[in-house]
């Protein structure tokens, strides 16, 4: 029997708020290094008092919902397990050094800055991917980039990235309420495997195939997830999945679609549809889009300027729900939290499939 801890949701919320404050402090220290690197102090709308208030109200709601989900048993308390403190602290100086280089790259608007190992990987990858997303050093193509990535994302979102990733779990539990026994999931663009960990904790008996275009990120995911069984790791592209038709019960991704050109977004949705069993579920977590967040427009405009994101504007204007409906997914359901939303849609059951709606 599961032991019920009194006030568990309040305790976990307290912990999550403290964790968020810890990352927010790291976030607010980065402009100092930007100033040292470029001599500039750009005016950021995110620092205006009315916007700050909105951001922290939304952040609080997300963390509260996350704590309630844990208390309801949708995913275990273990999702909040902190990483090793000494590893965390030893990484911070590397993040500062990288922040310094990112600021220089941003200032020079240099989005194609690759050397050595990263340059070698580039040759076999699609054109749209051959860039330093977020002005990130080596893009997604070195071990160092993979080592820093999760920590950098938590700094960017003031310690809310993990809770945003978990927004998808309740939507999947609505369709697959158990422990995942007999189910096969595919995570596309899994990066270093952060959401994969949470899915594995929520669905311990599911098999998960983990896919990403980046070899160094996939290696890091394998390292991060070494304690789990029933997993395999495949290098590949979401728009050209190396799998047979109707293989998976769930195909999902996190923070992928805003980095893809529209035609690749469409093709990735079509590929998810193809490899799903009839009745299977496609899911995603990504940035909110224009129709979701009227009062966050300033943030949707600022984000692609600060972090090299050439396809983001188009992404915000083309709702993912529409792309999924167009391809034939039904029962669309979504969950919003802070700057993200999770969306799921179901492939029709056998014999009820439809051709894509013609535009
Ligand atoms: C912003 S990161 C998100 C990583 C991870 N899902 C997370 O929650 O942090 C984007 C990831 O998508 C991968 N990626 C980008 N385009 C891809 C594609 N077409 N197919 C597969 N992976 C892709 C990148 O290599 C990178 O690991």
**Beta fraction:** 5-15%
The ligands found in this model are: S-adenosylmethionine
Low-confidence stretches: none
Spatial gap, N to C terminus = 53 Å
CATH architecture of the domain at 161-293 and 309-346: 3-Layer(aba) Sandwich
Number of helices: 13
Summarize the biggest pleated sheet.
Answer: 7 strands, mixed
Counting helices, strands and paired strands, the structural category is alpha/beta
Order of neighbouring strands in the sheet with most strands: 3-2-1-4-5-7-6
Using only C-alpha atoms, the radius of gyration works out to: 20 Å
Look up the CATH topology of the domain at 161-293 and 309-346: Rossmann fold
CATH superfamily of the domain at 161-293 and 309-346: Vaccinia Virus protein VP39
* Tertiary shape: globular
What CATH first level of the domain at 161-293 and 309-346 would be assigned?
Alpha Beta
Helix proportion range: 40-55%
The averaged pLDDT comes out at 89
Number of strands: 7
Order of helical and strand elements = HHHHHHHEHEHEEHEHHHEE
Provide a descriptive summary of the structure in words:
This protein has 359 residues and is α/β, with parallel strands linked by helices. It has a domain at 161-293 and 309-346: Rossmann fold (3-Layer(aba) Sandwich). It has 13 helices and 7 strands. Strands 3-2-1-4-5-7-6 form a 7-stranded mixed beta sheet, with helices on both faces. The chain is globular. The N and C termini lie far apart (53 Å). The structure holds S-adenosylmethionine (SAM).
């Amino acid at each position: 029997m599961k032991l019920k801890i009194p006030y568990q949701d309040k305790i976990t919320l307290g912990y999550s708020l403290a964790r968020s404050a810890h990352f927010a402090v790291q976030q607010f220290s980065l402009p100092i290094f930007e100033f040292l690197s470029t001599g500039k102090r750009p005016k950021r709308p995110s620092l205006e008092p009315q916007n700050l208030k909105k951001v922290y109200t939304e952040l609080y709601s997300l963390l509260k919902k996350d704590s309630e989900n844990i208390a309801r048993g949708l995913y275990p308390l273990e999702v909040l397990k902190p990483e090793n403190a000494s590893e965390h602290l030893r990484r911070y100086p590397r993040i500062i050094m990288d922040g310094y280089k990112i600021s220089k790259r941003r200032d020079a608007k240099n989005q194609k800055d690759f050397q050595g190992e990263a340059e070698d990987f580039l040759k076999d990858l699609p054109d749209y991917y051959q860039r330093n997303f977020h002005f990130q050093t080596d893009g997604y193509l070195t071990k160092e980039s993979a080592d820093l990535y999760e920590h950098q994302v938590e700094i960017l979102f003031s310690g809310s990235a993990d809770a945003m990733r978990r927004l998808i779990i309740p939507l999947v539990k609505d369709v697959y309420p158990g422990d995942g026994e007999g189910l096969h999931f595919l995570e596309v663009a899994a990066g270093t495997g952060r959401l994969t960990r949470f899915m594995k904790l929520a669905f311990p008996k599911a098999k998960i195939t983990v896919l990403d275009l980046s070899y160094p990120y996939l290696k890091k995911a394998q390292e991060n997830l070494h304690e789990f069984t029933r997993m395999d790791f495949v290098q590949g592209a979401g728009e050209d999945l190396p799998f047979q038709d109707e293989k998976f019960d769930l195909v999902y991704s996190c923070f992928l679609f805003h980095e893809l050109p529209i035609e690749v977004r469409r093709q990735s949705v079509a590929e998810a549809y193809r490899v799903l069993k009839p009745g299977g579920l496609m899911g995603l977590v990504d940035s909110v889009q224009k129709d979701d967040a009227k009062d966050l427009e300033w943030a949707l405009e600022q984000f692609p300027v600060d972090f090299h994101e050439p396809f983001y504007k188009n992404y915000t204007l083309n709702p993912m729900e529409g792309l999924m409906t167009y391809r034939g997914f039904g029962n669309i359901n979504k969950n919003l939290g802070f700057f993200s939303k999770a969306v799921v849609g179901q492939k029709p059951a056998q014999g009820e499939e439809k051709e894509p709606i013609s535009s």
